[in-house]
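Model it.
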Amino acid sequence: MSGESSSLIELGVVGAPFGVRGWVKLRSFTDPPDRLLQHRSLQLRVGGSWVPYKVEASGRSGGQLTAKLSGVNDRDQAGVLRGAQIGVPRAELPQRGDKDFYRADLIGCEVVNLAGRYLGKVQHFVETPAQVLMVVRGDAAATGETESSGAKESSASAAVPGEAESRRAKECGTGEYWVPAVPLHLRRVDLTARLVVVDWDDAAG
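Modeled.
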C-alpha cells in the first residue's frame, strides 16, 4: 500500500447518480452522516487509484446525502463513480476518543469473543444493503494450515475476556467470521492492545 493510500481513512462510498446534471448519492460511514460533507475535498478510489474531487454543492434527498463533484457534469459521468470508496486524509480528521475509532484502525487487530476464544484478525469490511460486516479470519484459514490441538492454550478461568483475553484460547482460530460491525456485537475495542472483543459464537461463522 502506498503512503498516500495508507494515510486515507475511508468515510463512505458513492451511490447511484442523482438527476441528470452529475449529482451523486453518497453513503456515509460517519456519525452523524452529515459529517462527511464537512470535507469539501474528497478522494475517490476510481479504477484502483485515488482521485481528488471538490464538493461543489451538497444536499439531501429522501434522507440520503447528495453531492455535485467537480468535473462530473452528467449522469453518465456520475455513473462511472458508483461504488467508489470515499477517503479523507487522516491528518484532516479529528482525534478520536477511547471509545471512538475508524474502520481502518481495526484492520489487523486480533479478535476474541466473550468466551475468550480467539477468532482471528480483522481482514476488511464488506458493505451490504442492510449493514456493514467485519470479516475476521483465523490464522490457519489465512495460511491454509491448521494448528496442533495442543497449541496456544489460554486460562480456563477467563470466561469473560480480562487480563488473558489477548492470548489465544484452546485452539488457534481456523475459520472465517462475518461479524456485523454494530455496537451489539462489537463490545470493546482496545487500539493500544490491537484487540477487539465481540459478542459472537465461534460456531456461527
